[in-house]
Amino acid sequence: MGSKTQKKWLPALFFSLSGIIFGTSLYLIATSTTTATAQTPATVASAVDALPYPDAPRVTMTLKRDIRQRLGKLDIIYRGVKNRNLQLDVYILDLDPQYAYRRTIALSEASEGFRVGGVRLELLSARDSRAKIIWNRKG
């Protein structure tokens, strides 16, 4: 009789520890917050000190792939060239700074000039790793 009562604590300990581990796991899963996309650092190209000619109406810039760059009231992330189309993610800071508007622009149209979020841009050259653009600050 003594051996049966001694071994009853082993299953009780096993199920108690299993319950604690399971409950803790559920709590951590339910309360954890994960970001949907990784935040990319913003480089401020429109800062007056950063531009070589702060009053110049047209500024030539290089957009590097997957790096967030600021142009006035926009943040732009260059996503490369795909099927002869320029891929951009545009963040309109006044409207919704957390939401990226995906823009696909034909290279022929981009070289003639295009407008994104009220900013006039003109494509000079585009590679998969970077694009060189002209930012028309006055129009």
Helix- and strand-based class?
Answer: alpha+beta
The proportion of residues forming helix, as a percent range, comes to 10-25%
| Order of the strands making up the biggest sheet | 1-3-4-5-6
Describe the main β-sheet briefly: 5 strands, mixed
With helices defined by DSSP (H or I, 4 residues minimum), what is the helix count? Answer: 3
In one word, what is the shape?
Answer: rod-shaped
Order of helices and strands: HHEEEEEEHEEE
Total beta-strand segments: 9
Query: What distance separates the N and C termini?
Result: 93 Å
Report mean pLDDT, rounded to a whole number: 81
The figure for the number of domains is 2
Oligomer: single chain
Query: What value does the Rg take, in angstroms?
Result: 27 Å
Q: What are the segments in which pLDDT stays under 50 over at least 5 consecutive residues?
A: none
In terms of DSSP E residues, the strand content is 35-45%
